User: Fold this.
Amino acid sequence: MAGGLALAAAVLLLGPALLYAAIPGFYVAVGTGITAWNVYAYSLGVPGLIAYYVVAFQYVGDARTVVRARRDRT
Assistant:
């Protein structure tokens, strides 16, 4: 359980950090035309987006558990 919690916390914190670091890379790539900035932005943005989807699926699972528990209580 502790390993899963640590992974969830890492994904929850790492996803936004990766995406927020990628956004300026896209701006610099468009402004300068240097391909390396585009590679940098995509290499941070795609894993960040995947992390966001992982967190979204975790939230959906948690929400279903809460709804099920409240339904069973009544």
About this structure: The chain has one domain: 2-73. Residues 35-73 form the longest helix (39 residues). DSSP finds two helices and no strands in the chain.
